[in-house]
Specification:
Radius of gyration: 13 Å
Strand order of the largest sheet: 1-2
Largest sheet: 2 strands, parallel
Number of helices: 3
Number of strands: 2
Order of helices and strands: EHHEH
Distance between the termini: 16 Å
Length: about 70
């Protein structure tokens, strides 16, 4: 199964502490444990500095376009 990852941070503090990279690492570790899942590097989507209250986020938009 092809899978995609999406991670987001919304505050400057979160960006400075690299929590988005930590999210990606944890998600990739989870995917690696799934024997039938495949993750291409191009299927990792992220948004730095975008509020979860907004639905228009560049990374999320690319993920939606890819899924469509």
């Amino acid at each position: 199964m092809e899978v995609a990852l999406y991670a987001r941070v919304s505050t400057d503090r979160q960006q400075q502490t690299q929590t988005i990279e930590q999210q990606i690492e944890r998600l990739q570790a989870h995917v690696a444990k799934q024997p039938h899942w495949h993750l291409a590097e191009t299927h990792i989507y992220r948004d730095d500095g975008y509020s979860g209250a907004q639905l228009n986020r560049p990374g999320l938009d690319r993920l939606r376009d890819h899924a469509a």
